[in-house]
């Protein structure tokens, strides 16, 4: 039984947690309560943790490892579940940032700060979700983690309490109760913590990475890639604990140590307080500095920053002041090659290609923001679940005050807003126009039901055609045109004059002809049918 763990232990715990969520990924995904597969909770959580694990550097110091892990998770966060997961680990990182070795009480405090940080990150926290389970789990048993309790028993208590809380989630969230399921995000978090516990209990989970599922594009620091030049070097800062087992501390000469450092770098600041030495140095090669320091002792803390990255970042931000910067840049998340082309033709500067679930990570939004040379930037997330990642990216951007989100819930809203844009107006007027015009569009999505469904008088079986407006099922039928007819009847067409119809790649000429016959009989509606290439929806329709 363990009383303490270090960074190496925690890294192996995280790896076991990652392998556990890989194994359970599809099971977590299947817990989605809506009849349309509009989000992959398990995949989002796996990708988020995976990005952090790949980015984090191996170190004995648990706080340093966790800080790196949390930063990587933040950049790779996918969907709401991924954003919340990254915030749980961010809070843990803040709590343990100075802890090289951690005991049960310190880990308990980290779980507490984790859920508090996650709650603060969510504008309108919903109970019955991962937030509730993370909070109730640790609050229920925090008083039991004391004395000589082991880390294994502490985490086991936490898991058992979270499982009890998970069983109560349908009582707190009506949509879970209606569909007779538990919250998928909460379950995914439990799976990860369970994997971490199993490592401490001696059960290593082996699972090969599934390369068939797309990984985050950004798993390396922003502003520095395979084409970058490395001229500026590294900035190193550390506290070194002198060890009597290696040197005679009373005979240690700070001046001699400084002379040796001068051979390895520049901009040196070095001072001694008791048996601790504080060092700041710029160097192209950190390894000899580390080797030199270890002749005298071991690190209490350590920081290594790529100054080339910082230099490149400064250059990007400085470019914003260039007189050639455009007034307004536009970013949009889009699914479907043909729809991507539509957005570009309408003036979109950067299209983030997304899967049918419209997942886009914070790092992808950061790439987009920093690549556009504009005085102001707007983002069309085109999905309410993607807004969290966009907001997180804005917080990470240096020039965050110039980036704004237009809260589009789907791609059609973005298209309508761009079609009504007045490019000659000033930026503020255009942004206000975007926000006003997205409400003019009514979007109908036609797809197949992935589950049997019955609510508010609407009943369908798996694989029936269903129509959704604002993510609500409004019609169901075994025939797509009948389903569309029922959906259209719920809309006041007197306020509409135009219709945009986008077909998936699976839609054939027969379906296109039937749609054309149907909409041609709608009085006062001009329409256009084209390929959109979108996934999930057979037909995506915008009325405005």
Keywords:
single chain; 544 residues; alpha+beta; Serine Threonine Protein Phosphatase 5, Tetratricopeptide repeat; Alpha-Beta Plaits; 4 domains; 6-stranded mixed β-sheet; 4-stranded antiparallel β-sheet; 20 helices
Describe the 3D structure.
There is one protein chain. With 544 residues, the protein is an alpha+beta fold. It has helices at residues 7-29, 41-55, 62-76, 79-96, 104-121, 130-141, 151-167, 169-172, 174-179, 184-200, 254-262, 286-296, 307-319, 337-345, 362-371, 387-396, 411-419, 427-437, 480-488, 509-519; strands at 5-6, 101-102, 234-242, 266-273, 276-283, 297-306, 326-334, 350-353, 374-380, 403-405, 442-448, 453-455, 458-460, 465-469, 472-477, 498-503, 526-531, 539-543. The strands form five sheets. It has a six-stranded mixed β-sheet, with helices on both faces. Strand 4 and strand 5 (276-283) form a beta hairpin. Helix 7 packs antiparallel against helix 10 (184-200). The termini are far apart. Mean pLDDT is 87; it is low at 33-39 and 209-221.
